Amino acid sequence: MVEQRLQQHFIDSADLKYQAGPVLSKPLGLAVQALLAGVTSGRKVLACGAGISGLLAAQFAAQFVGRFERERPSLAALALPCIPDDPLADTRQCADAAGLARQVRALGEAGDVLLAISPRGESAAVLAAAAAAHERDMCVIALTGGVGSGAGGALGRALRETDVQVCVPHDRLSRIHEVHLVLLHCLCDAVDAQLLGEQELSA
Question: pTM value?
Fold first, then answer.
């Protein structure tokens, strides 16, 4: 029974990724354009999320500044610190609702990009960060999740026409986090491909 349950995780994760690819490729492409517009004009990316999403934001920033899979000059990105073990991170009751917004106001400038990660789109901290980014005339790329009329949550509804939402069509947090990681890898790879030229994907 345990082995079957473990195998089912792999099956469910693979199925979602397979189904999400065609749905998310267009908004992902728009997100790549927004990132490129920022970094090629000398601007920076501020990445943020609450709880586990904050850890994903930190990984993205590390790969943007350092490297993804190819050597290249560093790209300006910064992960905004958060409380990683907050059990209410993706809710309106998160531990530090104003913390990310304070950092955006202190560090963000017009033309910068905010990469905001929130699986339900309901994190008060991430919502406030997006509002602060709008105050600074920044573009917001939101990685969210959900299905039906509530997909993307309050964060999705707060976005402007010039922003981009990439919403994973699923309701289970663990599955959304898994796809968010793939999305971040896709963003890094696509930016590298645009800056350095195409390279054949290896297995």
Answer: 0.94
